[in-house]
Every structure is written in structure tokens, then in C-alpha cells.
Write a structure and sequence with these properties.
single chain; alpha+beta; Helix Hairpins; Heat Shock Protein 90; 3 domains; 5-stranded mixed β-sheet; rod-shaped
């Protein structure tokens, strides 16, 4: 059952289309997710850098780390770390942090004396985290708590997490350095939550996982229906061909769709093949019937003569029996040659001089009352000598049978062709019958006696042999008023 299903063109087309769309959807979905994640991550990095730069600007303009107004840790956790890794300031409610320069969450306030100078010990001047307000407003003198700092041009990025009020989130951190402050070189770490990025990517992934199977199902169903409609004429052709095979009625034809696609061309070609096959079969049937009829007459005549001779030896017509036997032999030889030609027998490759061949055929025929005029020039062709001799002999027999007083035969070369012309001064062939006379067992003069007219195979054999040798045989009116048969064959290549 599985083999039968996947042996169907519809099934293979549907499966192929579904697989192609699935691969395309997977590639597109992965690209969208990667692009979405990258954009949201870049956006978070920009937000983190912006927050870090705001804090860095405050520090660079003289605000002490303990006096900074830091953003809420739920949205943007911030750390200010000195060169020794001590935490000088941090967002409120920050419980845990990773991915920054320090894992501390409680700042250590460096001691500052009342006069604005450094104090080597004691916590009296800086125990208040937000102390020191009003200091650092000047550029010099004893009232300056912090000097102006220099902010680095670029911030370094990183990824980590922060826990605020018991809730842990992933963040994108930016580290921005502020140099030459009173506390030395400081680094500001600011983070931006990746919750939006994770939520967006998760939502997109859920939509894809839900929508892709539905879309693939729609693609498969549409492909199945479309291929069914497209292949319906093919099934009609197949069923009709099956019926023709079963009934052996070659007159039937397959339906032709009213379209201009490959299926319509297939139907037309199939009908053309059926027509050619019908013609061939009908021709074969006619050939068998005509051959049987032609064989029956000489056989019946010969049997009658032999039976009379057996009963009355003195009445035996030996000459008539011999003539019937010869006629029967010639008919059998003609039928055998036609059978070989129909079977596709290839002509030989012998070199044959048509002038010499025509002279030999003329020498084997009595002159009788018909004068023969010749104009023979040597020209060689490649083929079967016996078959070409049969062609020339048949043309001479036909001309002598219909001529009143004269037969003309000429052999010459015309470019790449060797031409043999045989004409007579008889009644000629009507123009409407000039193709029909080359059919088998055709006689234009039905009232003529068979003994004088032959079986009607000579011209059919001559044309078949000419075609098999790559040439042609045609008929037209001769200058003398009768028929002129022209045989054209390719000239043999130079030896």
C-alpha cells in the first residue's frame, strides 16, 4: 500500500512541495528569530550604554559616587567600581549581580575629611551613602571634593544577571570607564533587562511552532488538489488506452484537453500514434487479404491443370502450368521482399553502377514490338545490388507493358544524386492517381487480365526499396505523352 501511494505522481508532488516549503519555512523562521534576537539584544546594549553614560557624566562633572542618583535596580541595575575593584555605589534593592567587574551589592564609601582633603582613616566624613552634597561644584580650591573626569569614548558590553527584590533577570551590561576622578579611575556598570527580548523571541517561536504545521498542511492539501486537477486528463488518457487495449478497437481516440500544456500535447501525440497504428494495421490486413486473393488464383489454376492432367494426361497444359508456377514464384518472391522491407532490413553497402545495372536488366528482356532508347552514364550508389536490380527491372516491365512503341531509359548524375528515368509513350498516369499507384495490389486498369497486368506489387516494392536506400521514386508525364518514372538515390562517396 505504501509503495502504491508513493508511486503516485500526486503523492510525490505533494510530498516534494511540502518538504520544500518546510525547509524554506525553517530557514526563514530561523533567520527571523536570529534577526529579532540580535536587534533586541542590540537595543538592550544601547539602553545599558545610555544609562552608564548618564551616570558617568554625573561623576565626570563632580558628583561623588555616594551622592549619585542611580536608576531603579528593577529596570537598570548600576554599579560604580574603582580601580581596586571596590564598589562605591550601587542601585537600591540589588541583592545579587553577575557579569560585571564586582559581585558586591553593598557599596563601600571612601572616607573624606571635612576640609575636602583625603583622610587616611575613619568613617566620620563619609558614613552617609548620599553625603557630601554641595561638594564638587567648583574647579579648584579647598571646596572641591572631586575633580572633573574624562569619560571613555566606547563602552564594553557583556551579559549577566541581576537579582532585585528576589526576582532574577538576565541583563545586558555596559561598562564605561571614567578616568582622572578624585577616586581615581572609576568604572560604571549599567544593565538593561533582556526580558523583552526573551518574551518576543518566545512569542515568535510559539507562533511559528503553531503556524508552521498549519501552513504545511494547507500547502500539502492545495498541492494535492491542484495535482489532482492537473492529472485528471492523464487519468482519462490512461483509462481510454486501457479500454482500447482491451477492445483492440484502434478507431477509438483518447480525450484531448482544451488546453495548450504538456498533457494536451501528450493526448494529441497519443491520438496521432493511434491513427498511425490503425493505418498500419489496416494496411497489414489489406495486404494479407490481397496476398491471399492473389495467391489463390494461380494456385487454383495450377491445381485444376494438374487434376485434369492426372485424369487425362493427354489434356495436360504444361505451358500453362509452368506459367502459373512462375507467376506464383514471382508473387511469393515479391511478398517475401516486402516482408523483409517492413521488418526494417537495412540495405547493403555495396557499390553499384546504375548504368551497368540498367544495361544488364535490358539484356534480359526481349525487345518485342517496343523500341528501347538508352542514355546511360556511369554513376555509382551504395546499397543492395539485388534490390536495386529489382527496382530497375520493375520500372522497365511497367514501361514495356504500357508503351505503344517506345521506351526511354536514362542514367545520369545531378549533384549529390544519381537519377534513373524510365519513360514510355503510353497512356500515362492521371495526376490524381500518381500516389495511389505506389500502394500495394493497386491496378488502375481493373479490366486488364492478371496475366498481362501482374499482381500490383512492382511499383510498391520499387518505392519501398528507394526509400530504404535514402532516395525517392516519383512519376510525372513524359515528353512522349506517357508516364515518366524518376528514381533518385544518393551518389556513393568517393572510395
Amino acid at each position: 500500500m505504501r509503495r502504491r501511494l508513493f508511486g503516485s505522481v500526486r503523492a510525490r508532488a505533494t510530498l516534494g512541495a511540502t518538504l520544500v516549503v518546510a525547509v524554506a519555512l525553517l530557514a526563514a523562521g530561523a533567520s527571523v528569530l536570529l534577526a529579532l534576537r540580535s536587534n533586541l539584544t542590540d537595543q538592550a546594549s544601547s539602553e545599558a550604554e545610555s544609562s552608564a553614560r548618564k551616570v558617568a557624566v554625573s561623576i565626570a562633572t563632580g558628583t561623588a559616587p555616594a551622592a549619585l542618583e542611580l536608576p531603579d535596580g528593577d529596570d537598570t541595575p548600576v554599579q560604580v567600581v574603582d580601580g581596586d575593584g571596590r564598589l562605591l555605589a550601587a542601585s537600591e534593592d540589588l541583592e545579587r549581580i553577575s557579569g560585571t567587574g564586582s559581585s558586591a551589592v553593598r557599596p563601600v564609601t571612601p572616607p573624606v575629611d571635612d576640609d575636602g582633603g583625603d583622610d587616611d582613616g575613619g568613617d566620620d566624613g563619609g558614613s552617609d551613602r548620599h553625603g557630601g552634597k554641595g561638594k564638587g561644584k567648583g574647579k579648584g580650591g579647598d571646596d572641591d571634593s572631586y575633580a572633573y573626569g574624562e569619560i571613555a569614548d566606547d563602552a564594553e558590553g557583556g551579559k549577566g544577571s541581576a537579582t532585585v527584590d528576589g526576582e532574577t533577570r538576565d541583563h545586558r551590561f555596559a561598562a564605561l570607564e571614567v578616568k582622572n576622578t578624585r577616586q581615581g579611575d572609576l568604572t560604571v556598570y549599567a544593565g538593561a533587562s533582556l526580558s523583552a527580548e526573551q518574551s518576543a523571541v518566545g512569542t515568535a517561536l510559539t507562533v511559528m511552532l503553531t503556524g508552521f504545521p498549519v501552513l504545511l498542511g494547507v500547502v500539502g492539501a492545495v498541492t494535492w488538489l491542484v495535482t489532482r486537477r492537473a492529472l485528471r486528463p492523464v487519468e482519462g488518457i490512461r483509462s481510454e488506452m486501457s479500454a482500447i487495449t482491451a477492445s483492440q478497437d484502434l478507431a477509438r481516440r483518447v480525450p484531448e484537453p482544451a488546453t495548450h500544456d504538456e498533457v494536451a500535447r501528450l493526448a494529441r501525440t497519443t491520438n496521432e500514434t493511434l491513427a498511425a497504428l490503425e493505418t498500419s494495421v489496416e494496411r497489414q490486413r489489406r495486404f494479407v487479404a490481397d496476398a491471399s486473393h492473389e495467391l489463390r488464383s494461380p494456385i487454383a489454376s495450377l491445381r485444376t491443370q494438374l487434376e485434369v492432367g492426372a485424369a487425362h494426361p493427354e489434356l495436360l497444359d504444361v505451358e500453362g502450368a509452368v506459367a502459373d508456377t512462375v507467376r506464383l514464384q514471382e508473387l511469393a518472391a515479391g511478398l517475401l521482399l516486402l516482408a523483409r522491407l517492413d521488418a526494417g532490413e537495412r540495405p547493403g553497402e555495396a557499390r553499384v553502377d546504375l548504368a551497368t545495372l540498367s544495361g544488364e536488366e535490358l539484356s534480359q528482356r526481349p525487345a518485342g514490338h517496343v523500341a528501347v532508347r538508352t542514355h546511360l552514364r556511369p554513376v555509382e550508389v551504395a546499397g543492395s545490388r539485388s534490390q536495386l536490380a529489382r527496382v530497375v527491372g520493375n520500372l522497365l516491365d511497367n514501361a514495356q507493358r504500357h508503351a505503344r512503341s517506345r521506351v526511354d531509359i536514362a542514367v545520369r548524375a545531378e549533384g549529390p544524386w544519381a537519377v534513373v528515368e524510365v519513360g514510355d509513350d503510353g497512356g500515362g498516369v492521371p495526376e490524381a492517381e500518381r500516389e495511389r499507384i505506389f500502394e500495394r495490389f493497386v491496378r488502375l486498369d481493373d479490366a486488364r487480365a492478371r496475366d498481362d497486368g501482374g499482381a500490383g506489387l512492382g511499383l510498391a516494392i520499387a518505392r519501398d526499396v528507394a526509400v530504404r536506400h535514402g532516395g525517392a521514386l516519383t512519376v510525372r508525364s513524359s515528353p512522349a505523352g506517357g508516364a515518366l518514372f524518376e528514381l533518385r538515390l544518393p551518389v556513393a562517396p568517393a572510395a
